[in-house]
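Q: I'm writing up a methods section and want to include an example of the input and output format. Could you take the sequence below and give the corresponding predicted structure tokens, formatted cleanly so I can copy it straight into the document?
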Amino acid sequence: MSEHFRKWQPYGAATLVGSLPHHDRQKAIDLVFEEIGEIPAWPQLSSYTSEQMMVQYNEGLPGLERKNDRILFAVSDPGFEQELLAFYEEYLPVSNGELSLDESRFRFGEDTGRTFFAFLERLKRQEPTAAAVKGQITGPFTLLATLKDENGQLALYDPRLRDVVVKALALNAQWQVELLSQFSLPTIIFIDEPALAGFGSSAFISVSAEDISTMLDEVAGHIHRAGGLAGTHVCANTDWSLFFGRSLDVINFDAYTYFDRFALYRQDLVSFIERGGIVAWGIVPTMDPENIKKENADSLVSRWRQQVEQLVGDDLSLETIFRQSIITPSCGCGTLTEPLAERVVHLTRQVSEQLRQKTGI
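A: Here is the clean output for your methods example:
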């Protein structure tokens, strides 16, 4: 955890996972600051192709081409090795501090970063009421488990592609922290890893827990280098032991659907919280529109309290859990309609406010 913000405690503050369905950037940013002003997160607007989860972080990767509406690594092209060399020729001086990240391929470009830059401008004009600020990247496992080469092989299984994807994501995360840190607030970057729901399945049988840990640690290391807090988000069940013993500061999970699976790791959770770790509870549903419509703040607060009471013991109090908790939606809202996404955002704020009132902490 960043030394500067090691003791930061959010006390049930609300934030977002990232994506929203809005096309109007200003409307989306206004929604974030009006409802989630304590830990505002820049909105990833999936209505724009350049901001979709599997596109936004491809920028600057060597050998990546679009063929027949597919994005793939053209590793057999004659120029691939030269592009790979150029990548490392830029990576090394950036990593050594000889070249500014802001002048490199590892930052967002004009299209991929349009909403991010608009969010930064709003932060500069905003009254200084935020307690922290949040960004996000697509996680390395998720991106590698999606991108393929021209032969149909996942990038995950090519050591060259695995290395460049991890390094590109790590430096983009570091760059985000550097820009967001100008506001002298704790800066959190979520490493979004939905594909880790498939870890351990036959599709990824040759990928070890050590492989996952190595990738996450490299990205988290760059976030910490810039003074940020490194979080991870998985919107389904996974092997949570992958995260508790790592260099992560925040773990975000779908508490609405998968709490029982998460609770199996109680002792790991106790140790994580003891060392200052923060749990981001995805207690507001996003996957099923009917659940979004039927739930309200009271029902979700009750659900959270029932869950936490199952974790409380002599070694872990409700007060400690709450001090080191963040409230979030269970996942991003990019696939929802705008009215449903706005209801999710509103519920997230209401749950945070009611928990603070009812816990009295």
